[in-house]
Amino acid sequence: MRTANKTKRLMPRKLVVRTNPHSIAAEQYRTIRTNINFSIPDLTSKIILFTSASKEEGKSTTAANMAIVFAETGKRVLLIDADMRRPTLFRTFQLGNNTGLSNLLLGKGNLKHSVKASGIPNLDLLMSGQIPPNPAELLESDTLDELMEEMRGLYDYVLFDSPPILSVTDAKILANRCDGTVLVVNTGKSEKVSVEKARDSLATAKAFILGVVLNNYPLTSENYYYHNYNE
Question: Which of 30, 77, 135, 156 is most deeply buried (CB count within 10 A of its CB)?
């Protein structure tokens, strides 16, 4: 596990918890953090999956911001890009993607030397690595189980950002192995039938569904009142 680089890196706008920590959106991420901790209070190390029904619903943005708010509490956090088909984490944090999860699942390298410092205290990153021809088969291997146990010994929170659950089987495989799953839904864009299918897929995988995050939900006047009050 590497220590965070003290050099400040320019963070993209999507990391609102970092760029605008007192915003309403940032506070909502902290509320989700509290709800997750209440949902699985007995685990000293928590492995959580973030997925969605379809693409472009905000699951990667949600996972990244959640990783930051968990790290804010002083806990050791690892954020993993488990989308070995369309990785995005390396762009979010402006880092390389030559090595990562796929390499470890192929038995190349080790965890401690594969993680990258995010530039944020307590937060490490594991990129997806080079895109393999068989992501689902790699995730079903015993190597992933061994890797997850190693992660539990090093981190308080391990967050997996997976592909959409209705697109490929990767998310179902991970959901079965994680302590809890968060389903991200894009308000106004996600179709009800797709959300229901995603829920059913998670149930089939025997996933523990922690809850649903409604992304891009319209704010009410009460939200703005409390935002101004806190300021």
Answer: 77
Extended strands (E) in the chain? 46-52, 77-81, 116-117, 123-126, 157-161, 180-186, 209-215
Contact 26, 32 (CB under 8 A): no
The DSSP 8-state label assigned to residue 217 in this structure reads P
Residue 117: partners with Cβ closer than 8 Å, 6 or more residues away: 2, 3, 4, 5, 124, 125
Return the closest-CA partner of residue 79 out of 90, 182, 139.
90
For the residues of 95-115, what is the DSSP string, one character each? ---SSSHHHHHTT-S-HHHH-
Q: Does domain 16-230 have CATH number 3.10.490.10?
A: no
User: pLDDT band at residue 1, thresholds of 50, 70 and 90?
Assistant: very low
Q: In which element (H, E) is residue 75 found?
A: none
Q: How confident is the model at residue 220 (pLDDT cuts 50, 70, 90)?
A: low
The C-alpha R_g of the chain, in whole angstroms, comes to 17
Q: Are 182 and 53 in contact (CB under 8 A)?
A: no
Instruction: Give pLDDT tens digits for 151-175.
Output: 999 999 999 999 999 999 999 999 9
Under a CB-based contact definition with an 8 Å cutoff, are residues 175 and 51 in contact? yes
How many angstroms separate the Cα of 180 from the Cα of each of 53, 100, 172, 211, 216? 16, 23, 12, 9, 23
Domain boundaries of the chain, sorted by first residue: 16-230
